[in-house]
C-alpha cells in the first residue's frame, strides 16, 4: 500500500490525453505532483490548476533528457510512467525513425526512469512505480506490431521488477486500459470500439487504486475484452482471430504526448 498524501509523484505524459486526469486524481488523494511532458505552455496551464504542483519540460524521445529530468524533478516517491506514442501501421511502411522513437518513449524511458529512481525508494523503504501499459500488451493486433512490442515489453518489465523488489517496501503496478474514449490517441482517431470504451476517469481511478492497494496489474476494460484477452493468452493459435476486434488500433505514425 502506498500512502499518497504528501508523496511526491513524477507523472510523465502529463499534459495531454489521460495525463491531466491522472494528475487531478492523485492530487485529490493528497499527492504532490511533478508534471512532465514536452509542451511548456500546456504543463504550465495544468500546473496552475493543481495547487502545489510543479513541472519540468522533457522530451522522453531524447535519451539524454532523462538524466536531466531526474535531476530537475528532485526526490520522488512515486513514478507514474504514462507517456506514450502509437507508431502503428504495417511494419514495412513504418519509418525507422518512428520505430526508434516509439521504442524510446514507450519502453526505454520507463525502464531508465525506474532504474534511476528506484534505488532511492529502496533506501527509504517506500515508493512505487506505476507503468501505464495497455490491453495491447496482452492482445496482438494487425498493423500494431511495434506498439504491441512496446506494451508487451512494458508488461514483462513491470511484472519482473515487482518480483525483484519484493520485500523492499517498493511496489510496482501495471495499469492496462482498453480503448479510452473522450481524449487521447484512440479518441483522436475518430474510430469507435465495438465494445463500450473506458473513460479517462476510470483509468485515473485505476492508477490511484493500484497505488493504494499495491496491485500488480489492473485491466481497465469491459468484461468481454478482458476475458477475450485471457483466452487469447491461453490459446493463441485457436483464438488469434479475435485479436483484430480486441486489440487493433488505428494506423498512425509516431505522435503523441511524451
How does this model look, in words?
The structure is a single chain. The protein has one domain: Rossmann fold (3-Layer(aba) Sandwich), CATH 3.40.50.720. It has 258 residues and is an alpha/beta fold. The protein has 10 helices and 9 strands. The longest helix is centred in the middle third of the chain and has 29 residues, at 96-124. The strands form 2 sheets. The protein has a 7-stranded parallel beta sheet with strand order 3-2-1-4-6-7-8, sandwiched between helices. The protein is globular and about 50 Å long. Strand 2 (32-37), helix 2 and strand 3 (54-57) form a beta-alpha-beta unit. Mean pLDDT is 88; it is low at 249-256. It has helices at 19-28, 40-49, 64-73, 96-124, 145-164, 185-189, 200-213, 223-234, 236-239, 243-247; strands at 8-12, 32-37, 54-57, 78-81, 84-85, 127-132, 170-177, 217-220, 256-257.
In short:
The protein is an alpha/beta fold and 258 residues long. It has ten helices and nine strands.
Secondary structure elements and pairings:
Layout: E1 8-12, H1 19-28, E2 32-37, H2 40-49, E3 54-57, H3 64-73, E4 78-81, E5 84-85, H4 96-124, E6 127-132, H5 145-164, E7 170-177, H6 185-189, H7 200-213, E8 217-220, H8 223-234, H9 236-239, H10 243-247, E9 256-257
Parallel strand pairs: 1-2, 1-4, 2-3, 4-6, 6-7, 7-8
Antiparallel strand pairs: 5-9
Helix pairs in contact: 1-7, 4-5
User: How far is it from the N-terminal to the C-terminal residue, by CA?
Assistant: 28 Å
- CATH C-level category: Alpha Beta
Structural class: alpha/beta
Largest sheet: 7 strands, parallel
Can you give the helix content as a percent range?
Answer: 40-55%
**Proper CATH architecture:** 3-Layer(aba) Sandwich
Name the shape in a single word: globular
Numbering strands along the chain, what is their spatial order in the largest sheet? 3-2-1-4-6-7-8
Number of strands: 9
CATH topology: Rossmann fold
Average pLDDT across residues? 88
Radius of gyration: 17 Å
* SSE string, helices as H and strands as E: EHEHEHEEHEHEHHEHHHE
Give the low-pLDDT segments: 249-256
Beta-strand content estimate: 15-25%
Helical stretch count? 10
Q: How many domains, in number, for the residues?
A: 1
Amino acid at each position: 500500500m502506498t500512502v499518497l498524501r504528501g508523496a511526491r509523484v513524477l507523472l510523465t505524459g502529463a499534459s495531454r490525453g489521460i495525463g491531466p486526469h491522472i494528475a487531478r486524481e492523485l492530487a485529490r488523494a493528497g499527492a504532490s505532483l511533478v508534471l512532465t511532458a514536452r509542451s511548456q505552455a500546456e504543463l504550465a496551464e495544468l500546473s496552475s490548476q493543481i495547487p502545489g504542483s510543479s513541472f519540468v519540460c522533457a522530451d522522453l524521445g531524447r535519451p539524454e533528457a532523462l538524466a536531466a529530468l531526474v535531476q530537475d524533478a528532485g526526490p520522488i516517491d512515486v513514478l507514474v510512467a504514462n507517456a506514450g506514442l502509437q507508431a502503428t501501421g504495417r511494419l514495412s511502411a513504418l519509418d525507422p525513425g518512428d520505430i526508434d522513437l516509439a521504442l524510446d518513449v514507450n519502453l526505454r524511458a520507463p525502464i531508465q526512469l525506474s532504474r534511476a529512481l528506484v534505488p532511492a525508494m529502496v533506501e527509504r523503504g517506500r515508493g512505487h512505480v506505476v507503468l501505464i501499459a495497455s490491453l495491447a500488451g496482452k492482445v496482438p493486433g494487425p498493423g500494431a506490431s511495434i506498439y504491441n512490442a512496446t506494451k508487451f515489453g512494458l508488461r514483462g518489465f513491470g511484472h519482473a521488477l515487482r518480483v525483484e523488489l519484493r520485500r523492499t517496501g517498493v511496489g510496482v503496478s501495471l495499469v492496462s486500459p482498453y480503448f479510452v474514449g473522450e481524449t487521447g490517441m484512440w479518441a483522436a482517431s475518430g474510430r469507435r470500439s465495438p465494445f463500450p470504451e473506458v473513460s479517462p476517469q476510470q483509468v485515473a481511478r485505476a492508477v490511484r487504486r493500484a497505488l493504494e492497494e499495491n496491485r500488480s496489474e489492473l485491466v481497465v476494460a469491459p468484461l468481454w475484452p478482458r476475458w477475450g484477452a485471457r483466452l487469447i493468452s491461453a490459446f493463441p493459435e485457436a483464438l488469434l482471430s479475435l485479436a483484430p476486434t480486441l486489440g487493433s488500433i488505428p494506423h498512425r505514425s509516431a505522435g503523441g504526448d511524451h
